[in-house]
Amino acid sequence: MDCVVANKPKVRAQEIKKISGKQIGIMGGTFNPVHIAHLVAAEQVMTKLHLDEVWFIPDNIPPHKELALNIPAEDRANMLELATKNNPKFKVMLLELYRGGISYTIDTMHYLKKEAPENNYYLIMGSDQVNSFHTWKDADELARLATLVGIRRPGYTQEAHYPLIWVDAPDIRLSSTAIRHAVKTGTSIRYLVPDSVREYIEQRGLYRE
């Protein structure tokens, strides 16, 4: 398969200037690997808040946790590209991979607001991220630069420290950790990730150790 990082991601950093005056959802994370819960959440937020696009921005080095199994960035980016290619409103942005170092969301938002200030940005977070958002770097400023959006999870304690928009989405109890464990133990991940991602994982031999 072609390498997204070395070849051509859906949207390059330098093309941001061409995208202006839109409502843009931002979904960050390690995507190690991307799975259907990520995609369902993005679709629900996009349609319910009438966003023009959702941008998936994979971390380079996540600030709040270790990157499990040290999977190469190009593999995570390739899986995102495969997972989103059939939705023209989903874009893969590799800003944090290009920038390198620890991926702080505030740095990404500063860049986006500088390059395309006409856009309105919506930072999409799961319930666990909502609860910990106040510990993120420069959380106060980040909450001013973007509209915060939380994915509501039934039965999960949600303690928002900042104003945000709650969006209800199907309660899919799935995590990248569970996907990795399933692959390692030989359990099927069919229907848990897009088929193209499952095939990529099998072809590349990812998550077996």
List keywords for this structure.
Rossmann fold, alpha/beta, 6 strands, globular
Please render the helix and strand layout as text:
Elements: E1 23-29, H1 36-48, E2 53-58, H2 73-84, E3 90-92, H3 95-99, H4 105-115, E4 120-125, H5 127-132, H6 139-145, E5 147-152, E6 165-168, H7 176-184, H8 195-204
Parallel strand pairs: 1-2, 1-4, 2-3, 4-5, 5-6
Helix pairs in contact: 2-8, 4-6
Family: Belongs to the NadD family.
GO biological process, one term: NAD+ biosynthetic process
Keywords: ATP-binding, NAD, Nucleotide-binding, Nucleotidyltransferase, Pyridine nucleotide biosynthesis, Transferase
Give structural notes.
- Strands 3-2-1-4-5-6 form a six-stranded parallel β-sheet.
- α2 packs antiparallel against α8 (195-204) and α4 (105-115) packs parallel to α6 (139-145).
- The chain is 35% helix and 15% strand.
- The chain has a single domain (21-173), classed as 3-Layer(aba) Sandwich (Rossmann fold).
- It has 209 residues and is α/β, with parallel strands linked by helices.
- It is globular.
- It has helices at residues 36-48, 73-84, 95-99, 105-115, 127-132, 139-145, 176-184, 195-204; strands at 23-29, 53-58, 90-92, 120-125, 147-152, 165-168.
- Catalyzes the reversible adenylation of nicotinate mononucleotide (NaMN) to nicotinic acid adenine dinucleotide (NaAD).
- Pathway: Cofactor biosynthesis; NAD(+) biosynthesis; deamido-NAD(+) from nicotinate D-ribonucleotide: step 1/1.
- InterPro entries: Cyt_trans-like, NadD/NMNAT, Rossmann-like_a/b/a_fold.
- GO terms for molecular function: ATP binding; nicotinate-nucleotide adenylyltransferase activity.
